[in-house]
Design a protein that fits this description.
With 135 residues, the protein is of the alpha+beta class. The protein has 4 helices and 5 strands. It starts with 6 loop residues before the first helix and ends in a 9-residue tail after the last helix. The chain binds 2'-deoxyuridine (DUR) and zinc ion.
Length: 135
């Protein structure tokens, strides 16, 4: 059984997750949601820390939550992320690298802003030439 991903549903989950962001330093709230090929959904928000380098993005929170629940590379169908940016939010390099390892290269990433602008790109398009260990 393969789930048909409705971006609106995934974006709504990301929008709700954004409300949970812990961002006392940047005050920039981000939400993300991932759905697996068999329909499981996981959400994430950014989690900041006074030691700024420890801040974790919403995208990685969602993906790591899925991994903690047993998901593995090949399981993911789509990811959505939303922030209050002028254009659809663009994931940082660290999140692109994590997506590259955990998600298929053709997996769609839906990027949105609160105003309703939405863009879609594949993982491969977001990070061509990602780092991989041999093999
Ligand atoms: O795609 C993005 C971009 C930024 N952030 C977070 C990191 C930090 O907490 C705050 C400002 O960069 O937003 C995300 O969660 N996802
Ligand atoms: Zn990031």
């Amino acid at each position: 059984m393969t789930t048909v991903v409705v971006p609106d549903v995934l974006l709504d989950l990301a929008r709700q997750a954004r409300e949970m962001a812990y961002a006392p330093y940047s005050r920039f709230l981000v939400g993300a949601a991932v759905i697996t090929r068999d329909g499981r959904q996981f959400t994430g928000c950014n989690v900041e820390n006074a030691s700024y380098g420890l801040c974790n993005c919403a995208e990685r929170t969602a993906l790591f939550s899925a991994v903690a629940a047993g998901c593995r590379p090949g399981d993911f169908a789509a990811l959505a992320v939303i922030g209050d940016t002028p254009e659809p939010i663009s994931p940082c390099g660290a999140c692109r690298q994590v997506m590259s390892e955990l998600c298929g290269e053709d997996m769609p990433v839906w990027m949105a802003n609160l105003a309703g602008a939405v863009q879609q790109a594949t993982v491969q398009a977001l990070l061509p030439g990602s780092f991989r260990l041999a093999g």
